[in-house]
Amino acid sequence: MCKGPTWMKGNSLYNLTEESLTKWQDDCEAGCICTCREDGRGNRVIVVNFSSAELNRLPQALPENTTELGMRDKHLENIDASFKNVAPHGEVLSLRNNLISRLSANSLPSKLHSLDLRGNTINKPPHVLVLERNLTSLWLSGNPFQCECDDYAFKQWLDAHDNVLLRQKCDTMIHHLSLSYTVVLVVILIPSAAYFYAERRQKAWMSMQGVCSWAHCISDGDLDAENLFDVFLSFSSKDASWVLEQLIPGLEAAALSYCTYERNFKGGFLLQDIIHDAVACSRRTVLLLTR
After folding, report:
1. pTM (predicted TM-score)
2. pLDDT value, residue 285
3. Cis-peptide into 109, omega within 30 deg
4. Using alpha carbons only, what angle is made at residue 70 by residues 138 and 135, rounded to the nearest 5 degrees?
5. In what order do the strands lie in the sheet with 258-259?
6. Which of 7, 30, 181, 225 has its CA 20 to 30 A from that of 72?
7. Which tens digits make up the pLDDT trace of 222-269?
8. Please, which residues have CB within 8 angstroms of residue 273's CB and are 6 or more apart in sequence?
């Protein structure tokens, strides 16, 4: 028979479900979902989810030892300094899809290691915040960052902690660079591919006409024998993860060799010359275009 906590008093342990055992009611505001579980060290962990509650403010109180807090889609505009006193043991915080434009490290719990700020209105990369909090997971996508010269320090932090930032995007820098690179790539790649396609067709026709003795043609079976790669993959950096996770494993499974910018291109040469050589050295060319 259960003696505590108060909402469990008098219940038989044998009749309790997982939901009733993990539900936490002490200091849990109306409309919120509070649950408890045991961490790897045998300590009790309280998880509070305000996302379904009809609140547009920060909670006034939280269950003791709350370590995970979710406040998604609450139209919050700022997090004041009192919040770290409300959640002093907070380690995981989700503020996704709010209206936060600026966030100070002084308003966040000192033990915080996971922070989700996706879909807010932050326009300045939070360099001071990441320096003052030992974050191991950070989400920032969906914010209208204005990437300027004084943000280079944050760029250096990104380079040193690329495993922490799970997704990054600057509306005024990365998007435009990626788009420009794609346009240049298409402009250079299409004429190069057309040239080599026409040249190959010409060689094949001359081979069939028996005039290869002076034209250095090759037979039908050897038209692609001189190429180093089976396929040249051309894609935007935005699609790199999909190519690495989906496309390339399929090529490797089929025992096909491939050429990519990151894997095979050398520095110190003009981009058009590099692409020209890549097309020339590959039997086929795949140009991946996405929105």
Report:
1. 0.53
2. 85
3. no
4. 25
5. 258-259, 229-234, 282-287
6. 7
7. 555 567 788 888 887 777 778 888 888 888 888 888 888 666 665 555
8. none
In the structure, what pLDDT confidence band is assigned to residue 57 with cuts at 50, 70 and 90? confident
Residue corresponding to tokens 């906590």? 5
CB 128 within 8 A of CB 150: no
Q: If we measure between CA atoms, which residue out of 111, 99, 91, 49 comes closest to residue 74?
A: 99
Distance between CA atoms of residues 109 and 79, nearest Å: 11
Integer-rounded Cα Rg, in Å, for the chain is 29
Which range (130-144, 180-194, 238-252, 275-289) has the least confidence? Answer: 180-194
Structure tokens that stand for 187 in this block: 């402009």
CA torsion sign for 104, 107, 112, 115 is negative
3-state secondary structure the chain: CCCCCHHHCCCCHHHCCHHHHHECCCCCCCCCEEEEEECCCCCEEEEEECCCCCCCCCCCCCCCCEEEEECCCCCCCCCCCCHHHHCCCCCEEECCCCCCCCCCHHHCCCCCCEEECCCCCCCCCCHHHHHHCCCCEEECCCCCCCCCHHHHHHHHHHHHCCCCEEECCCCCCHHHHHHHHHHHHHHHHHHHHHHHHHHHHHHHHHHHCCCCCCCCCCCHHHCCCCCCEEEEEECCHHHHHHHHHHHHHHHHHCCCCEECHHHHCCCCCCHHHHHHHHHHCEEEEEECCCC
